[in-house]
Amino acid sequence: MYVPYPQGECICRLAVDVREGEELCTCYTESMESRAKRQRSLDRFKFTCTCSACCLSGKAQETSDARRERARRLRPKVRQSLEGRLKDATPEELLEETEEYLDIYRTELGCDPMMPLVIESAVVLALGCAEPETAQKYADEALRVKLQCEGDHHGVERYRRYAQCPTSHPGAVAIGLGSPFPIDCPPAAFPAPPAGSPFTIGPVKGNRTGLIATRPIIRGELILEEAPVISMSRADRGFARGSGTTEASLLIERLHDITPAQRAGLSCLRRENTMNGITTLKGAESLYKFNAVPGTNQDMNIYMYGSRFNHSCVPNVINLDFVSGKDTMTYRAMVDIAEGEELTISYFENSDNFILSKPERVYLLSERGLSTCRCELCSLSGPDLARIKKRQKRIQSIYMETSTPSKGKLAKLRELIALMEEDIRNPHYLAAVHERALQAALLDAPRSKGALQHALEALKCKMICQGDHSGLETNRLLAQEPFLCIPPESRTGEYPSQELKFPYVGRDAGVTFAQALREYELEHGTEADKPKGQGTQAAKNKGRPRRQSNKKKGGRRR
After folding, report:
1. 32, 46, 358, 365 — which has fewest CB within 10 A?
2. Predicted confidence (pLDDT) per residue in 282-312, tens digit
3. Do 212 and 258 fall within a single domain?
4. Is it the case that residue 212 has pLDDT exceeding 90?
5. For the region Disordered, what residue ranges are annotated (predicted)?
6. Full-model pTM
7. End-to-end CA distance of the chain, in Å?
């Protein structure tokens, strides 16, 4: 059987015992289909299966097809049960259907990588039905099947804990039928900042703890790059909800996978008014609610030092997690920061939240259990508050009006840039607006000199918030040749519009444009590949007088 791994590897393991000299084979079709459908699926491979299941006949074949069809009908309900979408079904009904599904799987297939999750849900269902012996049986089977499917690795440890004590399963803990497996958690002690870090951890304004700059930090400088201490994938959270597990009980389970020193550091991140330790449901719920942030793949991650940044609606640090990959969070200075100044980030996601009103910002913060923000923007009142509201409405109006670059919008985009540079200062948003202005300038006047300025500013803003990396190649290209951003119907110059299959205009990241450019160069060659004297058509025509066309309306060219 194939066992896919997150790193892209694929491990092949034996689903059953194999004798010496016996052929090793895997399944190319949907295993739960009838024999006739499986054979039709194999027609594209031009061979007929002669395995033991396909060689059955008569009553045995009918029984096998009926059992597989029953499993196919049960599969959606089992998946919905795993994902917590069957709210009306009783534990007894779910356990009965899960047992029937597992029985068919054991009889027809022997083993499957999906089985440990199904068996794991049966453990909690059995506990919910007050059947501890059944729960113990399934906990032992889940460990055995997990080892058979994946071998012995670090991820199997939690199955060993369930086999040793089924009531320690997070689902059982969440519904009050058990308690977490004992965890060694030292007294709370936050680790010192990494060597060479330009910040320290200490008291800040408002009787809080935060990060303080220990030296001047220039705009665009990397302050911190950190991988999550704990990561919970979307799939894990979905399957956990199916077994009655909450994020808090799942977080307690994840505490087994980190070191005691990391547990001690996480203990410092819970709210001061929550005296429960992080190994209790209330303490873990507090830790998750106030510190977990969404990642690129809809994972929920908890960062050790990143969780120490306090919020500000006008932050001086920007945090992005799509630059380094693997949910590594990078923190860079958005502005020049003086020594002794607090480092702050925005708790709002990087979207259009910079145009939110104060009531909207207060509501979003309250969703995370935070009180009213005390930053300089939220502290405004009187004429200053009225002025900033007026400017925010103007920013919102222009931002929405210029979402699609077109002719005649350059002046408004430049006004928007001026307003954002004064009030928002966020290079992540400024880069997007400069790219809009670049396209608008080229639509107004191809080969516009102003377009070059916007292309360079977009590149500079992205380097400030992301650093210098290979993902900025498209911006570098546009900073050298801005006219490549002209729409296909208006594009002129070295790369004709008809050769570019994926125009850059309207695309989010410009990756498709770079691909089209490489395709064109591979097909037609670059300047270095051409013989001397055979440049582009634009180079050949340089200096020649333009020939008048003889084409007339309604006639033919002679």
Report:
1. 46
2. 777 777 778 888 776 667 888 999 988 988 8
3. yes
4. yes
5. 522-558
6. 0.65
7. 71
